[in-house]
């Protein structure tokens, strides 16, 4: 903080697994399934966890779980409470991932500290990119649960079942470990719905010739799993086989580029080479993973994400989801996704579920 001229940093959290609690949980180990909370870290190293009024009952538990936090408070007005804690009205304050902060809280803070210099920072988010060994072990464990859920889905899926019926065994496995999922789902789409590459399960029944796309993730210790696999109901056509083979070629090319020192852009550029001249629509949405399903680095092709970081360099012990999809517009789509650890001299897949197009 001193190098950036900051007197304090603030981070906001809520139960939204996709874009919410990661920074605060990383710093404090606090999370909850309701309400919202904030973390204040002063330049002198003193830290405060603020819980909103609906979480008053969790204050004793927070004190027990968050041993590294110095102070705990319940607040009905974050702006006024933070102003009292920060004290100096001319302070320079860093807002971590400020786009997540509700406008009402920002307005409260700005009114309470009208002379403060409030700026966007991503200190905690940057620290979270490279995982510790304990984090990697947690991610390996949660991915094993995710793979068990995927296996349960494919073992029971069959022609005549609805997408919702197909999803149930996977949900049962996930709930047997934890009531929290990494994201709402599982996503189960079949037939022409696979062209959209994503979606919640519906009453649509699987029929012979359908492609089936399943994307799901367990959650444990706050860490998220994420896995996408494909199946075919009955026998695949030549077009379906060609589409899936092209996807595997893209995945293999991208995987070979994952190592320390590689620019993110090299991963998707190499993957794209596998389909040069072919009439497929590509979806490259690889991303980091950890306390949230989608974390930095954003390895998407720039045309697919406004937050893509093509010039970012991969580092040892980053953990990413290599996620690639192909679509034949309006007809069908395929996508696979694997959790990959960047190692000292290359990479190590943390998912070992077969990549094959499984026949149901």
As for the number of domains, it is 2
Largest sheet: spatial strand order: 4-3-2-1-5-6
CATH architecture tag of the largest domain: Alpha-Beta Complex
**Strand count:** 18
For this entry, what is the oligomeric state of its chains? single chain
List the helices and strands and how they pair.
Blueprint: E1 8-13, H1 22-28, E2 37-42, E3 47-52, H2 59-65, E4 71-75, H3 78-86, E5 92-96, H4 103-112, E6 117-121, H5 123-127, H6 133-156, H7 163-177, E7 187-190, E8 211-216, E9 219-220, E10 223-224, E11 227-232, H8 238-256, H9 264-273, E12 281-284, E13 287-288, E14 295-298, E15 319-328, E16 332-342, E17 347-349, E18 358-359
Parallel strand pairs: 1-5, 3-4, 5-6, 11-18
Antiparallel strand pairs: 1-2, 2-3, 7-8, 8-11, 9-10, 12-15, 13-14, 13-15, 15-16, 16-17
Task: Tell me what the structure shows.
This protein has two domains: 8-127, 3-Layer(aba) Sandwich (Creatine Amidinohydrolase, Chain A, domain 1); 133-359, Creatine Amidinohydrolase. Helices cover 29% and strands 25% of the residues. The chain contains nine helices and 18 strands. It has helices spanning 22-28, 59-65, 78-86, 103-112, 123-127, 133-156, 163-177, 238-256, 264-273; strands spanning 8-13, 37-42, 47-52, 71-75, 92-96, 117-121, 187-190, 211-216, 219-220, 223-224, 227-232, 281-284, 287-288, 295-298, 319-328, 332-342, 347-349, 358-359. The strands form four sheets. A six-stranded mixed sheet has the order 4-3-2-1-5-6, with helices on both faces. Strand 2 and strand 3 (47-52) form a beta hairpin. Helix 3 (78-86) packs across helix 4 and helix 6 (133-156) packs antiparallel against helix 7 (163-177). The termini are far apart.
């Amino acid at each position: 903080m001193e190098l950036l001229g900051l007197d304090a940093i603030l981070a906001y959290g809520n139960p939204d697994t996709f874009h919410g609690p990661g920074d605060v949980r990383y710093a404090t180990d606090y999370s909850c399934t309701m309400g919202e909370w904030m973390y204040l870290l002063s330049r002198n190293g003193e830290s405060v966890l603020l819980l909103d009024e609906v979480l008053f009952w969790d204050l004793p538990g927070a004190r027990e779980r968050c041993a590294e936090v110095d102070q705990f408070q319940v607040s009905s007005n974050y702006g006024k409470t933070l102003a009292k804690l920060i004290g100096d009205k001319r302070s320079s304050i860093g807002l971590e991932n400020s786009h997540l902060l509700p406008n009402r809280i920002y307005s409260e803070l700005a009114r309470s500290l009208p002379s403060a210099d409030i700026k966007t920072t991503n200190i905690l988010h940057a620290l979270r990119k490279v995982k510790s060994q304990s984090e990697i072990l947690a991610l390996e464990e949660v991915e094993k649960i995710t793979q068990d859920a995927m296996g349960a889905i494919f073992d029971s899926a069959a022609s005549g079942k609805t997408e919702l019926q197909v999803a149930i065994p996977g949900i049962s496995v996930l709930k047997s470990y934890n009531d929290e999922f990494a994201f709402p789902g599982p996503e189960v789409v079949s037939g022409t719905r696979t062209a959209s590459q994503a979606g919640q399960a519906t009453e649509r029944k699987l029929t012979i010739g359908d492609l089936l796309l399943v994307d799901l993730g367990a959650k444990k210790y706050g860490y998220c799993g994420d896995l996408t696999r494909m199946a075919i109901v009955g026998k695949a056509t030549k077009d379906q086989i060609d589409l899936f083979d092209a996807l595997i070629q893209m995945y293999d090319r991208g995987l070979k580029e994952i190592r320390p020192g590689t620019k993110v852009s090299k991963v998707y550029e190499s993957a794209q080479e596998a389909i040069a001249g072919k009439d497929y629509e590509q979806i490259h949405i690889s991303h980091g993973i950890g306390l949230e399903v989608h974390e930095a680095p954003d390895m998407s092709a720039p045309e697919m994400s406004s937050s893509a970081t093509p010039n970012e360099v991969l580092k040892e012990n980053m953990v990413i989801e290599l996620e690639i999809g192909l679509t034949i517009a309006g007809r069908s789509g395929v996508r696979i996704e694997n959790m990959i650890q960047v190692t000292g001299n290359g990479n190590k897949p943390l998912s070992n579920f077969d990549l094959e197009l499984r026949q149901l």
